[in-house]
Each structure stands twice: as structure tokens, then as C-alpha cells.
Amino acid sequence: MVTNFFKKYNMKKVAVLALLVTIIYSCGSSNDRGELVGVKSKRKWFAEKPYGMVFIKGGSFTMGKQDEDPLGAMNAPTRTVTVQPFYMDETEVTNSEYKEFVYWVRDSITRTKLAYQAEFSSIDPDPANAGKNAVGIQRYAFASKDTVNETSYQKYMRENYYEVGEGMDSLKPLNWQEELIWDKEEYPDTDYVEVMDSLYIKKDEALNGIRTFDTKLLNYRYYWFDNEEAARTGKNRKDFLKNEVLNVYPDTTVWIKDFNYSYNDPMHQEYFAHKAYEDYPVVGVDWDQARAFCHWRTQKKNTYQRSRKNLGLVPGFRLPTEAEWEYAARGGLDYAKYPWGGPNTTSDRGCFLANFKPVRGDYAADGALYTVEAVSYNPNGFGLFNMAGNVAEWTNTAYNQMSYYMGSTMNPNVENRENQRKIVRGGSWKDVAYFLEVGSRDWEYADTARSYIGFRTVQDYLGTKKN
To answer: Which of the 8 DSSP states describes residue 80?
Structure first.
């Protein structure tokens, strides 16, 4: 009797569960007639070409030195590799573009210090009493939260995340609505003056009494996840979440340090600061700073994407791999020596096709002593400017003499975090023609900035674009 009772009881449980499953499925998919239709997104994805970038369709090409190797490097033997489609900046990142990154870091640090000073000096600590009616430094207090109408989720996030952290590590939302005041004659009150005074160099360090923003304070903190290492080892996720803080201001002293017994002071003083050089490629940026710029650019774009309903997040901007860079530099010309083909560095009219050091060291022969504007000379077959000369460019790939043998034939990229030697490509304004060849390889230490090395970014293309 007991056995029969439990059998009947279990049969009832199974029947109830089956009924619940039937109800759930029938309620969740009333229009599919029971067919497998898949989970569809509310908004169809389409690839939007990023501003200032060109689409590189991807494909196979013969990578490496195509003909002679006069330096005897023997580190770039020819082989066939394939790269996926991607977007690439049509020019090197310019001073103007990198300056936007620097200014964002400057403004975020300034707003954070102003917000804490406002909190410290506030007569009424309730942020709800600030806002539009606030005066002086209180206009720059942390962005107030609507604690009356907030949802349970918003309350939980505010109490457990946004109100924790101190100093520059604070997660409290900054007030980006109020314009910062940089004219010292218009500072609203003493508290504002105190904060701004702490951000500028000391009087005894000022030249001709002019105090400038202390560039040592321009530190950018960001987080990134080491996907490849996590996939290979399978350890805890938190073990691969990296936290980096680095100064983002370009090293303008490279114009002095790169050249002994040479007068380059005008470039040192004005190249990054003066508006005459706004559209010239940024230099004095090391490999880590270039990666930080990529992270910031991704955050800038995705912040906008989140502000718009139903817009998906875009893939991250990054440095190109060595293979991607060479494929893009060739511009669709296989077996070419230069981005324009070759074999010469001049046109049929005798005009130089790139900015480099021609004619046994005559810097002025090509019309430029140092760098030129990022949009100069003719673009290659993909629409990319200065893939040879002007400034050499950082890639994401670590230098290894055997990397052409070790790397995969599909999207090759021999990357090693412990290897501080990073590949630079394209040659520069101070290099001879050999380094302008699309198959030439060179390297520099990741923590080293040079007056002849810049960078450009790429972004993955999602999906397959058919011809």
C-alpha cells in the first residue's frame, strides 16, 4: 500500500511538472506554432563604419620579404597567411586626436578633485539640495541621485557600488554637465581656487611666471581582461582581470633625447602644444600609452551607444597585429615592395612618394625635415595614408625572430606579455628606404617613446561581408 501510494504521488508530481512546462512554453512562444524559430534580437545588427576609418576586407596574401634582404635579417621569410576583415584608421593618430584623450583625463581628474572639495566644504551635506540652485564649487559636486523615485536595482547599485571608494578611486558619478572654468580671473570661490592651485606646477617651477597644468597628474586607470591566457589555463576569472594606471602625456623630450648634439628645441616645445601641428601624427607615445588610448576610445564610443536605446556595444579598438598591418599596407597589391607598388620611391615625374631620409641622408629632398601632416602623399589601394614613412607605427605583436615560423597561418599574432620588444612597422621620417618596405620588420621596447614612432588603431568587423 505504501509503495503504491508513493508511485501515485510521484506520478502526480510528474504530471504537474509537465503541465507547468507546457504552460511556460505555450505562454513564451504563442506565435511560433511550436516550431524552432530561434531567439531573435529586437534590433537587427548592422556594422557601422567608425569615423575616420576604412574597411579592410581581409583575405590571404604573401607575407614577408618578397625579393632581396640587403640587411641579411632573415627574420621575415615569405609565407601565405589569412587575416579577417577589420577597420583601420586612414591616418596615424594625430596630435589633435590624442589631445582629446589627454584633455578627458585632465577634466576627469579636475572634476573628481572639485567634487571632493565640494563635499568637504558643503554646509548642507545632502546632495539633493545642490543641483541647479548650487553656487560656487557646489556646482561641481558629485552628480546627485534621485533617491525618491529610484528603482530597487538603482538603490542597490548606489549603496553597494557607486558610494564606495575614496579619492581618485571613487566610483561616485561625476558631474559632467557643468562647464569647467580655466580662467583664473573667473574662479567662483576660494575652494575652487584651492583645487585648481593644486593642479598646476608650483611657482618656483614656473618659467616666466607662467604656471601650467602638472602633467604628472595625468594618470589614466583602466581595466582589461586577458582573454587568451584565461582560455588556455581555465583558472578563476578574477586572475586575468588586469588593472593598469599610467601617465598619458606624451614625452615631448624625445625630440632632444633621440638626437645628441642637435638643436631640436622648437619641436620639443611646440610639436604637441602648438595648433600648427594639430594634424600631424602624435609621437613620444610608448606602446602602453597607445593601448590606453585604444581602451579610452572604446569607452567613449560605447558610452554613447549605451545612451541610445537598442544600440549594441561596438568591438574594442586596439593596435593592429603585425599581419594585419602588413596586409593593410600592401593595399591589395601582392608581391609589392612598397604600399604604392614599386620598385622606386619616386613617381614617374621624380616626386617622392613618402616622407623618409632619401639621397644619402638629405632630409629635405622629399620636402620635409621632420614629420608631415597625417593626410599627405597619395593613399594606397585601401585608402590608407602614410603606411610608409612619416612615423613608424606600433603593432600589437611582440618581436621574435622565429615568429614567422611559429605563428598560425590564420590571423597570426605571436604575443608574449613578458616580451617587452614590440614590432614597429612602416619606417619613419628619419629612416632610409629599406624600412619603408612593407616586408621590413623593426622593434622597440614597449616602455620607450620615440620622436619617430606613432600608431593607428583598428577595430574588428563582425560577420562576413560578401562581395
So the answer is: E
Domains located in the chain, CATH noted: 54-94+283-460 (3.90.1580.10), 113-199 (no CATH)
Alpha-carbon Rg for the chain in angstroms? 28
Alpha carbon distance 433, 424 (integer Å): 15
The model's pLDDT over 76-96, given as tens digits with 9 standing for 90+, comes to 788 899 999 999 999 999 999
* Cell numbers representing residue 203 in the block: 611657482
How far is 194 from 93, CA to CA, in rounded Å?
A: 35
> What is the value of pTM for the model shown?
0.87
DSSP structure class, residue 174: P
Judge whether 280 and 371 are in contact, CB under 8 Å.
Answer: yes
Kindly state the cell numbers that stand for 250.
Answer: 606624451
94 beta partners: 281
* Mean pLDDT along residues 86-113: 97
In one letter, which amino acid is 28? Answer: G
- For 42, 44, 56, 90, 193, the CA distances from 464, given in Å and listed in that order, are 21, 15, 12, 21, 55
Q: Rounded to whole angstroms, how far apart are CA atoms 87 and 57? A: 8
Percent of the chain residues topping a pLDDT of 70? 86
Report the SS3 class of residue 394.
Answer: strand
pLDDT in tens, 278-309: 999 999 999 999 999 999 999 999 999 888 87
Compute the distance between CA of residue 90 and CA of residue 459 in angstroms, rounded to an integer: 12
